[in-house]
Every structure is written in C-alpha cells, then in structure tokens.
Amino acid sequence: MAFAVADLERALAAYAMLGGEHVFTRQRPQAGYEIGYVMVGQETLITLLHPTGATGPIREFLNTRGEGLHHVALEVDDLTRVVATLRANRVEVGEIKADPGERKEVYVPAGALLVPMVELIEWEPAMRVSPRERVARMAARG
Questions:
Q1: Short-list 38, 52, 48, 93, CA closest to 69
Q2: pLDDT value at position 104?
Q3: Where are the domains of the chain?
Q4: Confidence (pLDDT) at 141
C-alpha cells in the first residue's frame, strides 16, 4: 500500500508508534517525490509518498485529494500477460516501465478496474524474496 503524505517525518513517526520500522528513504527527484519504506512485521511493506517540489504527481494528488491511500501494489508473475488481458477487456492501463535489475511496473488508473489506483509489479528474479529482504536489496541499490 502506498500513501501520499504531506509530512514524511510525521508519517514515519506515526508508523513507528504502530511498530513500524523505517527501513530507508529513496529519492525520486526526476518525478518530484521521495518514498519512505516502512516494514510492519515481517511481511507488510508500507510506502509513504512525499512530494519534494511544488509540482509533480504526488503534489497534485495531495492538492486535489489530500493525504491518504494513493495506490495498492499487486505482485504478478507475468506483467505483459496481465496487461494484455486487461487491455483485451478494455481496461485502461498505463505503459509498462522498467527499473532494470529490480522490476517492471504499470499503473491502472483509479476507477478503471478498482476504486483505488492499482500498481502491478513483476519483480526481477533476484528480487523475488520476502518484502523485508527486497527492501534491504533496494536500499543497497540506492
């Protein structure tokens, strides 16, 4: 689950009170936001999306909808096949983007299939591990 937040430090502190562990923060300057990764228990990964500038998709989300659920991420084994199935059923789907060595992903806009926006992720073989190990590998990559 990914949440858009206006204050990353405040959100990290709130999840810490719930037993969450801030694993690392990844900067996405080209997209205008940063991502705080929080593990709750061994299997639950929460991502906190925080805008770093006056424009960008997360800033726009906060300005129009306020803080809250941004999207739900679902892991799939064959992203190309799933996207083809969605398109064959006339479901609006974005373009597949790749982060080499990590994953391929695509977004299904809110309302096109489900109420929240959905991110579909196909992890590269080296990243098909537990969420805790995956986040550690992501942190090592930067």
A1: 48
A2: 97
A3: 2-141
A4: 87
Strand partners, 75: 121
CATH class of 2-141: alpha beta
- Collapsing DSSP to helix, strand or coil, 90 comes out as coil
Read off the tokens for 6: 């206006």
Residue whose structure tokens are 């989300």: 61
Sign of CA dihedral 15, 17, 23, 25: positive
Convert the pLDDT of each residue in 121-139 to its tens digit.
Answer: 999 999 999 999 999 999 9
The pLDDT mean for the chain works out to: 95
pLDDT tens, residue by residue, 103-126: 999 999 999 988 789 999 999 999
Q: How many helices (H) and strands (E) does the chain have?
A: 4, 8
